[in-house]
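Retry 2 of 3 after timeout on previous attempt. Resubmitting structure tokens to design endpoint.
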């Protein structure tokens, strides 16, 4: 009995040591079909080490040999002007649950190029998610560790727009125009993007008039856009851009759909975006997490330094007074739990 007990203690000690040494691997894969590179996070036995990527200070195991996790992939789609590193903390939580996490760089709407921000890239993003799955499937070191028939997808903001599309939603540029014609005052930022803000002065009227004229000229397309990938079997949309969706198309999501909301979002008024989706899809969707004091950037962790952002974007992404980032690990765990529930046997 003592021998058995001693052996059990030794095994537990070895397991604890292995867990303590385990890190989050990092590699970059080439994109497919002309897409940009795909950042991949994965389980590894190698310890994390300090790593600098642009303005972000991270701790990852670059180029480490991968370990088999739970066999499932989650694609993370960044928001407008993002790059992926700002979702590193979520990626690490998902990797700790055994997932491989891949982040495609969205053409025309990333940190280096925002020339296609808005509907032009919203048409591309869901396809780029599919291409991200393909890129991982072509990796000789990662593909043998994964089964790509049940993939998860997380998207934030514009990435959330793509997430809703992959969950079965349909959207139209003209639907956004109609929304802005009706709600320019209440949802100004989603109608103009980060170009300017309303400041409560005499210029506000002119800004709204110009914005409405531009929207009427640019958002004439009445086409309903959709994209489904049968490999994507669970979706989380965080503070998604959603005012241009047909609510009826989200009443019966094609796959399990989770939402993450932030009550103090200054960029996308919850009433017209995340709350509108919840109203349309409940009870067939799930509120994964609600952040009462969080703003639009609540899901960005680490947060991009304000000095690398334009003044308008820095203001829109600034944490509201009273918001405590210490709650974010629990939100990330809720997202991981959602994917475990819907992707694992």
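Retry 2 succeeded. Sequence:
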């Amino acid at each position: 009995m003592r021998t058995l007990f001693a052996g059990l203690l030794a095994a537990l000690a070895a397991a604890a040591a292995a867990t303590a040494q385990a890190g989050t691997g990092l590699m970059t894969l080439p994109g497919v079909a002309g897409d940009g590179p795909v950042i991949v996070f994965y389980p590894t036995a190698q310890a994390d080490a300090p790593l600098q990527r642009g303005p972000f200070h991270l701790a990852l195991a670059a180029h480490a040999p991968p370990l088999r996790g739970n066999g499932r992939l989650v694609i993370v789609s960044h928001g407008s002007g993002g790059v992926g590193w700002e979702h590193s903390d979520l990626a690490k939580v998902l990797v700790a649950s055994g997932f491989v996490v891949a982040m495609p760089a969205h053409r025309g709407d990333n940190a280096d190029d925002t020339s296609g921000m808005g509907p032009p890239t919203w048409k591309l993003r869901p396809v780029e998610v599919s291409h991200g799955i393909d890129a991982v499937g072509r990796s000789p070191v990662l593909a043998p560790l994964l089964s790509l028939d049940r993939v998860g997808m997380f998207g934030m903001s514009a990435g959330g727009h793509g997430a809703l599309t992959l969950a079965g939603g349909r959207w139209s540029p003209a639907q956004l125009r109609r929304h802005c014609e009706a709600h320019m005052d209440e949802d100004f930022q989603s109608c103009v993007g980060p170009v300017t803000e309303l400041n409560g002065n005499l210029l506000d009227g002119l800004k709204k008039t110009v914005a409405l004229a531009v929207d009427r000229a640019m958002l004439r397309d009445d086409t309903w856009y959709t994209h489904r990938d049968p490999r994507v079997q669970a979706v989380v949309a965080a503070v998604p851009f959603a005012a241009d969706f047909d609510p009826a198309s989200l009443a019966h999501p094609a796959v399990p759909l989770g939402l993450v909301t932030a009550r103090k979002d200054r960029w996308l008024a919850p009433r017209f975006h995340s709350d509108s989706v919840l109203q349309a899809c409940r009870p067939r969707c799930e509120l994964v997490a609600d952040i009462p004091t969080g703003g639009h950037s609540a899901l960005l962790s680490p947060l991009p330094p304000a000095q690398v952002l334009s003044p308008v974007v820095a203001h829109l992404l600034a944490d509201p007074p009273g918001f405590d980032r210490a709650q974010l690990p629990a939100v990330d765990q809720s997202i991981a739990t959602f994917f475990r529930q819907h992707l694992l046997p």
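Attempt log closed. Residues 263 and 289 are 11 Å apart (CA to CA).
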